[in-house]
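Help needed: design a sequence for this.
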């Protein structure tokens, strides 16, 4: 089994080679006429400028943490893996953003010939992001494992390995929050003034916020989402490795017996199987002649389905290979069932997201119908739909945890370690097909940008019809990917929490972490933990509101002060750069407080009372998961209810129900693209910070 990290590393290189192949494929497609190319270049310039500034700001935090970690924990080389995790996460986001801003105009141009050409092109653009994320993450993890465990063999090898996840989390936290604030400030400001006040179409070239909105799709929903899933994928593999190492008190030198090696490398074997499945699945996505959203969905889901089926088959094979020795393990099928249970639970959460956010199901149609009685009932119906979806998702997670725990005990024995290890590898299963899941997610922003370019370039309305169908599907695929991410966050955080408990005991043999809710410090910690996701969400939503307020004032000013702009006088152009600058300044300034909250609060509580920190992490996990599902699905439902009305239902565009739906969509924007997606990062950042600094607390 010692060859498994090398095999996984080779599969990571194969994923990166596929990303390069898709990049060349997208680049070779024609970008359209001069106007389309000009708009594409403006979006590229704005997105690159923002990411450069964002990474410059975040670099200061990363350097500070790289110094703090070895000083406080005493693990000198931990800064190496921390910086590697941060650098690869940032690189994956930048690579995905680069190709997404190149694929948008090309997708618009392909849409002239119909969805058969447009959908595969948008998917391939997203696939560069997907396989960059999965490939760079697995490459970095396997290299770090080989370097510190196999080649150098340092005493603190597994503490160093764990720091990779904290590096990935550091970038993901700020990239998701900063990008989310940017994109929603532009989107909310542009919609409220353009569609509601001025009565002009979405993405109209007269609206000065349109370019900023398109830039935001790329920095938030591509680069931010990529960093988010990079962190999720990395954390899911780190959790079972850390759990094994800390539970067995391993150093690199002590990790040599057969049973231990198999437990350490099994997560990498599942990652390898999932990577191969995702690579093959990506080639299963085709176009089709129909522009019906259902038909388009079948094309995209085919890739995910193929990847999942191959992963299930490969997992069963790996289970027999790893755990077939009856002298070392009990039932060989237990842990494979844990992995498959996680994969199915993730698919189920994604299916819940599809049911509650697609306009082919009752929840979205109900919200659209409520729009006939005004914005208030539209908002209320969206809130209730999001809340109901939480119940279904929690049920799936509970079932997944039970199956995974049972499976771990079947293979490793009837004790807590075996059960929690099963839960940890279930998270790996849930994200094993990350390459294709992220590809389908990143397809959405590309399709959204393609629609904007069609509108701004004043192409034939039939082109916008095709891109709107692609975009409507993109809202649903985004909700599905968020379901995978937050579901894995719950499982990964639970495994990391157990690792944190064991790490405390390893640091001080006399210490025993208490989670007795009758204990006042644990009880207070639970309430503080339950509070933080709400505070975090409030900070990010307020940040969107403040930045959007400035955007609204600027758009109103330009409509008022630039003669002929609102009327569409030929030759009169809006000052898009001013709106891009407002979103950039607002998001960079506003992202620091929520980001610092996630790192500072667990450290402060941990140095005061470790039992309170245990309760804190438990409270944050439960409320963070529920909030993430609620906000992601409510926001997606409002967005697609608006699109359902724009398709000609309940009065169509410009009607009073449409205006009410725009208000609902505006409320949902920071829910689904800023606060909601940040929750899963928040959960894991606080847990992995606690794990990395565990020895310092006692």
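Sure. Designed sequence:
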């Amino acid at each position: 089994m010692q060859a498994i990290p090398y095999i996984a590393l080779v599969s990571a290189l194969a994923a990166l080679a596929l990303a390069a192949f898709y990049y060349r494929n997208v680049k070779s497609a024609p970008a359209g006429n001069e106007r389309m190319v000009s708009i594409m270049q403006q979006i590229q310039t704005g997105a690159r400028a923002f990411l450069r500034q964002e990474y410059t700001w975040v670099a200061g935090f990363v350097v500070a943490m790289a110094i703090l970690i070895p000083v406080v924990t005493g693990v000198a080389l931990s800064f190496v893996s921390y910086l590697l995790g941060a650098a690869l996460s940032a690189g994956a986001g930048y690579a995905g953003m680069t190709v997404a801003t190149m694929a948008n105009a090309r997708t618009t141009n392909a849409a002239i010939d119909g969805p058969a050409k447009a959908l595969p092109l948008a998917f391939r653009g997203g696939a560069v992001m997907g396989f960059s994320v999965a490939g760079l993450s697995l490459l970095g993890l396997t290299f770090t494992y080989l370097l510190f465990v196999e080649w150098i063999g340092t005493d603190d090898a597994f503490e160093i390995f764990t720091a990779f996840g904290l590096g990935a989390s550091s970038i993901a936290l700020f990239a998701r929050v900063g990008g989310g604030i940017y994109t929603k400030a532009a989107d909310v400001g542009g919609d409220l003034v353009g569609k509601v006040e001025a009565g002009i179409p979405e993405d109209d070239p007269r609206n000065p916020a349109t370019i900023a909105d398109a830039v935001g799709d790329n920095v938030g929903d591509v680069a931010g989402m990529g960093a988010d899933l990079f962190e999720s994928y990395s954390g899911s593999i780190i959790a079972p490795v850390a759990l094994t190492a800390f539970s067995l008190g391993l150093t690199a030198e002590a990790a040599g017996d057969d049973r231990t090696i198999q437990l350490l490398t099994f997560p990498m074997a599942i990652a390898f199987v999932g990577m191969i499945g995702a690579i093959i699945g990506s080639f299963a996505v085709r176009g089709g002649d129909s522009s019906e959203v259902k038909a388009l969905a079948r094309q995209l889901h085919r890739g995910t389905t193929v990847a999942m089926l191959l992963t299930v088959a490969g997992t069963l094979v790996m289970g027999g290979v790893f755990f077939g020795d009856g002298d070392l393990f009990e039932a060989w099928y237990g842990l494979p069932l844990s992995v498959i249970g996680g994969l199915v639970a993730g698919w189920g959460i994604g299916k819940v997201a599809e049911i509650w956010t697609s306009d082919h199901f009752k929840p979205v149609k109900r919200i659209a119908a409520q729009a006939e009685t005004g914005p208030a009932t539209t908002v209320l119906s969206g809130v209730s739909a999001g809340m109901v979806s939480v119940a279904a998702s929690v049920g799936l997670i509970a079932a997944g945890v039970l199956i995974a725990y049972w499976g771990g005990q079947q293979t490793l024995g009837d004790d807590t370690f075996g059960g929690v290890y099963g839960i940890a590898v279930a998270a790996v299963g849930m994200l094993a097909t990350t390459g294709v899941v992220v590809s389908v997610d990143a397809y959405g922003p590309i399709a959204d940008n393609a629609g904007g370019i069609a509108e701004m370039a004043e192409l034939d309305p039939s082109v916008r019809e095709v891109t709107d169908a692609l975009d409507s599907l993109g809202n649903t695929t985004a909700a599905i990917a968020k379901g995978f991410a937050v579901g894995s966050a719950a499982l990964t955080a639970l495994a990391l929490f157990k690792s944190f408990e064991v790490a405390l005991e390893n640091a001080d043999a006399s210490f025993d972490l208490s989670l007795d809710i009758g204990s006042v410090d644990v009880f207070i910690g639970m309430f503080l933990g339950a509070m933080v996701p709400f505070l975090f969400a409030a900070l990010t939503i307020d940040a969107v509101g403040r930045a959007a307020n400035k955007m609204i004032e600027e758009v109103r000013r330009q409509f008022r002060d630039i003669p002929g702009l609102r009327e569409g006088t030929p030759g009169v152009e809006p000052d898009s750069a001013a709106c891009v600058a407002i979103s950039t300044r607002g998001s960079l300034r506003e992202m620091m407080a929520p980001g610092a909250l996630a790192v500072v609060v667990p450290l402060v509580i941990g140095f005061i009372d470790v039992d309170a920190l245990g309760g804190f992490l438990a409270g944050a996990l439960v409320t963070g998961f529920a909030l993430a599902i609620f906000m992601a699905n409510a926001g997606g439902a409002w967005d697609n209810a608006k699109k359902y009305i724009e398709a000609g239902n309940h009065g169509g565009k410009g009607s009073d129900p449409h205006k009410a739906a725009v208000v609902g969509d505006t409320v949902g924007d920071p829910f689904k693209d800023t606060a909601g997606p940040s929750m899963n990062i928040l959960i894991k950042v606080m847990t992995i910070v606690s794990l990395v600094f565990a020895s310092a607390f006692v």
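Residues 461-507 form the longest helix (47 residues).
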